[in-house]
From TrEMBL:
Cellular localisation: Membrane
Membrane topology, from the record: Multi-pass membrane protein
Alphabetically ordered keywords of this record: Fatty acid biosynthesis, Fatty acid metabolism, Lipid biosynthesis, Lipid metabolism, Membrane, Oxidoreductase, Transmembrane, Transmembrane helix
Originating organism: Kryptolebias marmoratus
Keyword presence, Transmembrane helix: yes
Residue span(s) of domain Cytochrome b5 heme-binding: 13-90
GO molecular function terms listed in the Swiss-Prot or TrEMBL record: acyl-CoA (8-3)-desaturase activity
Residue ranges crossing the lipid bilayer per the database entry: 260-278, 298-321
Primary location: membrane
Protein name: acyl-CoA (8-3)-desaturase
InterPro entries named in the record: Cyt_B5-like_heme/steroid-bd, Cyt_B5-like_heme/steroid_sf, FA_desaturase_dom, Fatty_acid_desaturase
EC number: 1.14.19.44
């Protein structure tokens, strides 16, 4: 038998307490628990398909709920886990760690199993074919319009709006394939994901996977969710502003961040930060496959538009399209998360963690289309593999489960969601100023 948190010899397994498991949460010594089984993922993390960070964020913790949320074929994954097994939890130990609520975890697992039995994790092929079709139609119409009607300012502006719309909708579509929510076989989701994000958008599937799954695993958690890593340009939530204020950190005038947000985040996130970061990541990681896919996007774009606008004109049009798309993307993605709780690691159960960091926007045909069904952000975060056209079918049961356990389920109008982004930035900025001046 193993004990004291020490790994047993190969072929043997031990029995561990949570205290022993939690000693193994460093980068060079990392264990986690799935269904009471203890695994040493120290070396495997480097080869993890979703990236080393997302699995590493659960070092020393129970990862059962995250494991079920992200992996469609758990029997297949068990083949990779088996060699990593070092033991199991002692019979006297609870199945969950930290502040995780066993009753909530059981009720949520029952809901997930029931949703799977009802076929809510099965995709409708026609839905995604039509969605891809309307993206390709917009791309074709934009080019045909300037080809036949010329490149006047009015026609060019309309072309840019159509291209920005197709790019935004392609962003929602690649999100579907990236979450393995379309095809039964993961390999087909991965292949089409590379086509959509690479050829249709000029970005990297691996860059997106490694970044986005961290966000889902630990939403709104400092040092674990890259979506709230703001390069010290903004301070978020209620804790970080006070910490920065007390330490007299002033990289920016944060009490004005709700004003300069409009000049920095919506216009520049995609055309500047994301474009640079994606290219840098593909080159530095030598991700030649994703780079090849992205290259096909640029070859197709310049082949179509250089004869019409010239090289500089085509570059200008591309930047303007990214500029428009960036506004769309930032408002949709931030209104679900930025006004919610943003904290350090809390070690909460899946349902509580996702509901405290996520809110919904009211359903309508426009809101569904405009946000790629991310107006159902709560359901998406709880069931990331569920096809988005089924979110509304499980939403009422999620709300009832939240009511049962006293967990707030927030629903807003589209306008209120956007306004709350600015309000939350102002509130955080005021907290920083007060701490900076008086603490």
């Amino acid at each position: 038998m193993g004990g004291g948190g020490q790994q047993t010899e190969q072929g043997e397994t031990g029995v561990y307490t949570w205290e022993e498991v939690q000693k193994h949460r460093s980068k060079n010594d990392r264990w986690l628990v799935i269904d009471r089984k203890v695994y040493n993922i120290t070396q495997w993390a480097k080869r993890h398909p979703g990236g080393s960070h997302v699995i590493g964020h659960y070092g020393g913790e129970d990862a059962t709920e995250a494991f079920a949320a992200f992996h469609p074929d758990q029997k297949l994954v068990q083949k990779f886990l088996r060699p990593l097994l070092v033991g199991e939890l002692a019979a006297t130990e609870p199945s969950q760690d930290g502040k995780k609520n066993a009753a909530i975890m059981q009720d949520f697992d029952d809901l997930r199993v029931q949703a799977e039995k009802e076929g809510l994790f099965r995709a409708e092929p026609l839905f995604f074919c039509l969605h891809l079709g309307h993206i390709l139609l917009l791309e074709a119409l934009a080019w045909l319009m300037v080809s036949n009607w010329g490149t006047s300012w009015t026609v060019t502006l309309l072309c840019a709006v159509m291209l920005a719309t197709s790019q935004s909708q392609a962003g929602w579509l690649q999100h579907d394939f990236g979450h393995l929510s379309v095809f039964k076989k993961s390999k087909w989701n991965h292949l089409v994901h590379k086509f959509v994000i690479g050829h249709l958008k000029g970005a990297s599937a691996n860059w997106w996977n490694h970044r986005h799954f961290q966000h889902h695993a630990k939403p709104n958690t400092f040092r674990k969710d890259p979506d709230i890593y703001m390069l010290d340009i903004f301070v978020l939530g209620k804790t970080q502003p006070v910490e920065y204020g007390i330490k007299k950190i002033k990289y920016m005038p944060y009490n004005y961040q709700h004003h300069y947000f409009h000049l920095v985040a919506p216009p520049l996130l995609i055309p500047v930060f994301y474009n640079f970061n994606i290219m840098k990541t593909m080159v530095t990681r030598r991700d030649w496959v994703d780079l090849a896919w992205a290259t096909t996007y640029y070859l197709r774009y310049f082949y179509c538009y250089i004869p019409l606008f010239g090289l500089l004109g085509s570059l200008g049009l591309m930047f303007f399209v990214r500029f428009l798309e960036s506004h769309w993307f930032v408002w949709v993605t931030q209104m679900n998360h930025l006004p919610m709780e943003i904290e350090h690691e809390r070690h909460q159960d899946w349902l509580t963690m996702q509901l405290q960091s996520t809110c919904n926007i009211e359903q309508s045909f426009f809101n569904d289309w405009f946000s790629g069904h991310l107006n159902f952000q709560i359901e998406h975060h709880l069931f990331p593999r569920m096809p988005r056209h089924n979110y509304h079918l499980v939403a009422q049961r999620v709300r009832e489960l939240c009511e049962k356990h006293g967990i707030p389920y927030q629903m807003k109008t589209l306008w209120r969601g956007m306004v709350d982004v600015v309000r939350s930035l102002k509130s955080s900025g005021d907290l920083w100023l007060d701490a900076y001046l008086h603490k």
